[in-house]
Design brief:
The protein has a domain at about 5-175 and about 315-360: Alpha-Beta Complex (LDH C-terminal domain-like). It contains 17 helices and 11 strands. It has helices spanning about 20-25, 45-60, 70-75, 90-105, 115-140, 155-165, 175-185, 210-220, 250-255, 265-275, 280-285, 300, 310-330, 350-360, 405-430, 430-440, 445-460, and strands at about 5-10, 35-40, 65-70, 80-85, 145-150, 170, 220-230, 230-240, 365-370, 385-390, 395-400. It has a 6-stranded parallel sheet with strand order 3-2-1-4-5-6, sandwiched between helices. α1 (about 20-25) runs parallel beside α2 (about 45-60), α4 runs antiparallel to α5 (about 115-140) and α5 crosses α6 (about 155-165). It starts with 5 loop residues before the first strand and ends in a 16-residue tail after the last helix.
């Protein structure tokens, strides 16, 4: 009989990630008897989520051993899976700074999370911690799987490959749900799905209650096969899940002819011009494009590109913390967490992936971020691409795809090459490489501006960027 796995969750005290991840893992029957080790540097938040996890464990008869600690090295020995969802710095505060610092130098980013100069700072803050976890794994659990959910996903997942001996690593993201939601919005009447008036897929906490039902209907009725890079993948095929009918021609016809002009207008433009539907929605796709920041044409107005709602995220975080506290104290039933959608929490396929590897389930995953190695032939082999794949006791096998159209491939290649330079700069603390990385960003058009932005990043984020102060722990 196969021994139940040991699962270490770093970031388990997070009200945003931890609550949903723990609920899904603990209610998965095949993981009954597993060891769940919870890690977070916030002791108070960790204690609350640990109490919630123990209530789930009892109520759902999971028979798990549940432990918690603020020291990851205490949790890692014997781990089979290490799930990482962390952020360095208070998330909304540093994200807002990532946007505002370049703005003071005239660079208006459309989102500032995974692309644009703000994403350089985002990468540089998180990379030492992400690589440090892998370094500890080399010593304490070298055969464990590293499941990374921390953005910028391409860069940080590749950093683990590049700078450590941990090779069983993949990045996980749910962004394909946005592709399903967009397709269902256009095709909804075919399936009798009611689409809310003015529906959009902006990545915003307040939009999730409207977004999730449409995305879920998309998953129910449609089958999308997409590939590319994270937050910038492209639909190769879209079919009716039951009949197998090719729906691409109908989607094109409807979206380009008569459908709402205010519905994800940048996605529609790119779809028409390049011939493939991008899946991420305007909010994320815009981060990789050079046509979204011009101060004269103001494309953020033309395409209604919305920033992340930092205040909305803070409200969501407070609401989730209140929910966790109510369940921990017994004021609210833990069984309410069986249905995560009622709390606008998306399902992450973490338990399915764990079970597939541990018990050889042959699980098909629609979205994996793994080394290319020829899966998309006209993207670099030694880069992180996003493809569907089959997960089993043998590990992960991504599905191979035909070459992307050259225009699309070039957009992806630019981001992949730039990401390698960002990662090297963030890992080594090389300020000249950091300047190169900013100058290669499609939103930066002036050398002095790039220098000024970098100088401000290094001053205002100094406590989070020790590698640029001479403490170069991650030099190759």
């Amino acid at each position: 009989m196969i021994k139940p796995p040991k699962i270490v969750v770093l970031g388990a005290g997070s009200a945003i990630f931890g609550l949903g991840a723990l609920a899904r893992i603990i209610q998965t029957e095949r993981l009954r008897g597993a060891h769940l080790a919870m890690v977070d540097i916030d002791r108070e938040a960790l204690d609350t989520l640990h109490a919630v996890a123990e209530k789930m464990n009892v109520a759902w008869d999971a028979r798990m051993t549940i432990t918690s600690t603020t020291d990851r090295r205490e949790a890692l020995p014997g781990a089979d899976f290490v799930i990482v969802s962390i952020q360095v710095g208070p998330r909304e505060t540093v994200w807002e700074m990532d946007w505002k610092i370049p703005l003071r130098h005239g660079v208006r980013q459309p989102y500032a999370e995974n692309g644009g100069p703000g994403a350089f700072a985002h990468t540089a803050r998180n990379l030492p911690a992400i690589v440090g976890i892998a370094r500890d794994m080399e010593e304490l659990c070298p055969n464990a799987w590293y499941l990374n959910l921390t953005n910028p996903l391409i860069r940080l997942t590749w950093a683990v490959h590049r700078y450590t001996r941990i090779k069983k690593v993949m990045g996980l993201c749910h962004q394909l749900m946005w592709g399903y939601a967009m397709a269902m919005a256009v095709l909804g009447d075919r399936y009798g799905v009611e689409i809310p008036e003015g529906f959009h897929v902006h990545t915003d906490a307040d939009n999730m209650p409207r977004f999730i039902p449409v995305a879920s209907a998309g998953l129910k009725y449609l089958d999308i096969k997409a590939a590319g890079i994270n937050h910038f993948s492209w639909v190769y095929e879209i079919r009716d899940r039951q009949t197998g009918e090719d729906l691409y021609p109908l989607l094109r016809e409807r979206w380009f002819n008569g459908y709402r002009r205010d519905f994800e207008p940048l996605t529609r433009e790119v779809f028409q011009i390049f011939g493939m539907m991008p899946t991420a929605g305007d909010s994320h796709m815009c981060e990789y494009l050079s046509w979204v920041h011009d101060p004269i044409t103001k494309p953020w107005e033309k395409y209604d590109l919305k920033l992340q709602s930092w205040e909305g995220n803070r409200r969501r975080r407070q609401a989730r913390r209140a929910l966790a506290a109510a369940i921990a104290s017994g004021k609210q039933s833990v069984d309410e967490l069986r249905d995560l959608h009622r709390f606008a929490i998306l399902n992450e396929p973490v338990p399915e992936i764990i079970c597939a590897i541990a018990y050889n389930d042959n699980y098909y995953s629609q979205q994996l971020n793994i080394l290319n190695n020829g899966l998309i032939p006209n993207l670099p082999d030694d880069s992180i691409v996003e493809v569907p794949g089959v997960i089993s006791g043998m590990g992960i096998q991504g599905l191979g795809f035909p070459a992307l159209p050259e225009g699309v491939a070039e957009l992806c290649r630019r981001e992949l090459v730039r990401s390698r330079i960002v990662v090297e700069a963030a890992a080594t603390g090389d300020k000249n490489l950091a300047l190169q990385a900013l100058l290669l960003d499609p939103m930066v058009t002036d050398i002095d501006t790039a220098r000024a932005i970098l100088d401000d990043f290094l001053v205002e984020f100094a406590e989070y960027l020790p590698q640029f102060a001479g403490e170069k722990e991650f030099v190759v």
